[in-house]
């Protein structure tokens, strides 16, 4: 499973970091956001544009699992 670590990444750069993974269709993949609610919201907005969904990983609130929408 691919992992993208967004620690230290600016909000404006998130789209370009996730775009190829969202297009490639290699789901699921993990995005490490840390505990920043703002970063989680930014990631969720990006993946929704590609028809995907972001879910918090159980037991680790600093990660989102990106998968196809149900």
What does this structure look like?
It is a single chain. The protein has helices at residues 14-24, 37-49; strands spanning 3-5, 29-32, 52-57, 60-68. By secondary structure, the chain is an alpha+beta fold. β1, α1 and β2 form a beta-alpha-beta unit. α1 (14-24) crosses α2. It is globular. The model has no long low-confidence stretch (mean pLDDT 93). It is built from two helices and four strands. The chain has a four-stranded mixed β-sheet with strand order 1-2-4-3. It is 34% helix and 31% strand.
Which structural class fits the helix and strand makeup?
A: alpha+beta
Helix content: 25-40%
Described by strand count, sense and barrel closure, the largest sheet is: 4 strands, mixed
- Shape field: globular
Number of helices: 2
Termini separation comes to 19 Å
Rg, alpha carbons: 11 Å
Provide keyphrases for this structure.
single chain; 70 residues; alpha+beta; four-stranded mixed sheet; 2 helices
Fold topology:
Elements: E1 3-5, H1 14-24, E2 29-32, H2 37-49, E3 52-57, E4 60-68
Describe this structure in a few short sentences.
The mean pLDDT is 93.
């Amino acid at each position: 499973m691919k992992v993208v670590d967004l620690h230290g990444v600016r909000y404006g750069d998130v789209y370009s970091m996730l775009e190829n993974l969202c297009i490639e269709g290699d789901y699921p993949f993990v995005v490490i956001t840390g505990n920043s609610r703002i970063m989680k919201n930014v990631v969720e907005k990006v993946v929704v544009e590609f028809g995907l969904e972001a879910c918090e990983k159980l037991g680790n609130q600093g990660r989102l699992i990106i998968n196809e929408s149900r």
